[in-house]
Here is the input.
Amino acid sequence: MIEAGALLDAGSDSDTAAAVDAPATFVPGWSVRKRLRGTSGDELVLEEVLASFLVIEPGANRVRSLARDRSWTAPTGSYVSDACRHPSGEVSAILIAEDGSVSLVRLDASLSQKTVSALHDSAVSTDPNAGDAGPTELVANRFPRDPARIAATGEDVIVAVTTSTYAVIAYRIQFANGAWGPPMRTLVEPPSQVIPFAPTSGTFNTFGAMWSTLRTPIDLDDQGAAYFAVWADTDRIRAHATVFGDGLIPLSSDPGDPLGLVGDIIVTKVTANGARAWSRVLGTPHEDEPYAIRAAGDTVAIVGRSRRLPGQDNTFWDVFIGSVTTDGSTTRARSIPFDASSIALAIDALPGAGWVIGGSDGWAQNPSGLSIVQNGTKLLFSLTDLAAEPMRWALPAGPRNNEIRTVTADERGVWYGGHEDGPIMHTGDSDLTQIHATGLLGHVPL
Here is the structure.
C-alpha cells in the first residue's frame, strides 16, 4: 500500500521527514481510529467523522472493509466507542447512545448486523462509594467519545466501561448460538471523585486529551488475562486502596512542583476467570496520561504523554512509555522528548522483539490551559526494547494537524492509520465546518 519510509533518529527534524516520498491511501472526510486485528487477509478499520464537542450528535462512525468496499455505520443517535475482530472474521462493536446507555453489536464477516443487545448492570448501585442516590443502571461517562473499550478473546469479548460515577467495570461476555450471554462482572476501579477538565473556549478536543482521565485502554495476553490502564490522581488511588486493600500509594512527585500535582497510571490485571490478580502504579515525577496499552510476551506496555515541566505549565508534553511484567513484579516508566510537544496514541509489539509506537509531535499547548495551539506532525517510531533509543520513520507532512492513531505489526511490516488535515482546539471557532480531516492508511516494511 505504501513505499518504504526512511528511518531517522529521534532528533531528525520535520523538514527532513517531509521530503521522504512515502505515499499513503487517503480517505477524505474521515479519520482512521483503529485497524482491527484479524487473520483473514481482509483489512478492517474503524473510522469516524470528527465533530466538535459543542455538538451533541457525534460524527458518523463506521467499520469498513478495505478489500470489499463494504461498511457498517453506527445508527443515528449512537456512536461506536470501540470495535474488535474475532478469529471467525466476525466483528463486535460497543455502542454508546446519547443517554450513555451501552449496547453490544455483532456483525458477521461481511459486516452485516447479526444482533444488538443492551448491556445492563444493576449491581452498579451496590458498588463501594456508589452512595444512596447513586446509579441503578450502567451509564457510560458522556464526556469522552470512547468511554468503553472492547477486546476479543476467541469469539467472546472483554468490555471495559468508564461509568458516569468514574468507576471502571470490566465485563467478560460470551457469544454463542447467535446471541450474547450474561456478562461476568469485575470491578476494576470503584466510583471516585474525578474532576473532568472543562474548556473555557474552543471547539475541538485535540487527541481527546481533555478527557484522557475518563477512558480505559485494555488488552489481553495469550492466556486470556486482561490488562487495564486508568489515569489516577491522589483521590482515585486512595479510593482504590481503601476498597481493594492492596496498599497502592501515589508515586513521588517532583519536589520542585509548587502544586504537588499527581497524575499516575494504575495498571490492573484480571485473570481469564474474572479474578483481580494485581494492580500497580506507574508514572514519572510529573503528570502522566495513558492512551494505549499492549500485552506481549511477559510485558505489558502503556503509552501516552507526560508533562515535561512541573506545576500548571502545560507548554510541553513528551511521549510517555511505562511497562509492567505480566506477573506484576517489575515496573518502569520513562518519557521521550521529540520535536516541541509529543504524544503516543498507539502501540504494538513487533515480530520477534521490540515495539512500534504512533502519535503526533511538533505541536504546542497553551501554557495555562487545555488548548493545543500548534499543529502536530505524524509520529511513527520503533524501539528494540522499552529502554532503547527510538528509531523514527520519516513520513510526509500533511496539511494542518497530523496524527497516527493506530499501529499494528506483523512479518510484512507496520501498518498505520490516522489523519492529516485535522483540526486543533480553535480551528472551528468561527466555522464548525472546518472541523474535518482526511484519513490515511499506510504501511512501512521492517
